[in-house]
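FW: tagging you since you asked about this chain on Friday. Here's the raw sequence from the shared folder, copied in full. Didn't touch anything.
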Amino acid sequence: MKKLCCLIAVAVFVFTLSGGCFAVENEPQVSAKAAVVIEAGTGRVVFGKNENAKLPMASTTKIMSVLLTLESGDLDSEFVVDSEAVKTEGSSMGLMEGDIVSKRDLCIGMLLPSGNDAANCAAVKVGGSMAGFADMMNAKASRLGLKNTHFVTPSGLHDDEHYSTAYDMAQLTSFALKNEDFRAICSQKSIKLAFGDPPYDRWLANTNKLLTRYEGCVGVKTGFTDEAGRCLASAAERDGVTLICVTLNAPDDWNDHEKMLNYGFSRVKCVPLEADDYYTACLVGSEKDELRLVPERTPMCPVINGITPSISWKMTVPRMIYAPVEKGHNVGELVLLDGSREIDRIPLIAAEDAAVKKGKPHKKSFSELITDKIKELLFS
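HL: got it, structure written out here
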């Protein structure tokens, strides 16, 4: 049992893990020039082949373009497509100058049919220009720690200065999948949209065949140019484990990914963390001065290639929890960390009811109310 009685309780401890053994497949032989499998939560490499080689990544670029578009907000307000967006070659969602679309439509158009027109339109709408959007892409890459990545185009059409690595693209995909809208779109085999001038219904199909070929696949993005070859980022879930697989210049990418994912799932297992049964936080206005808290679900951690990570956690709760509190009420969070990388957030809920203390309640003075408000603003 751990006790928290500070305004923002941040306690860091190291969990121990319940061990386990599992069958292991042979390391896969793949056609890709560069390839990687990572565990999505920790970002740790499960399998790699030239994973840090700088190569063109074709339309897997659109993972970043979609992420920035989603993060820009106001996804469902409509606007008119201008001429610059439709002046592009390659795959398309079928946009024409004057069409009425939303940014959400463009994200679907980028992730499913891999529309270069959708990417250009999003770049102009979100970044003000193609060059402005490229600056946003590179700034985001820097913030995410993608050290061997540089963007020039929003679509992934070839430019000698447009490149990444299998490792960087896997890390980008891991981050993108934390966005609920991104995850919901890229997992769909097809989506019906209404756009045009005037809008009319049409179906957009996903180019990612793994959604039907591989059980548990949840996305993510295909790509191809003559210079980059076939590129693919995929993600799959099984028994609480999420893996991300990226191949660059892979003539046999579908089979590569199936082999790599099978190998990854043979090498990664989720095990429960041995944590305290409950925690306590300071309680105000009740017969008792402590409130018991429990995680809403059991904390879990991946064991990768037989290696047990040193998982730490930090717990955040308000300094002043006021009665009454109902059992099951969300009070704070338990944040799991692998080094500085956040791998999970678990709600902390009240393990018991906490009634208001009987008797005449204390009426706070004006100065006490002001003091409480200042503390709340400073430390919440």
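FW: The longest helix spans residues 253-267.
HL: agreed, and Residues 80 and 100 are 5 Å apart (CA to CA).
FW: great, closing this out.
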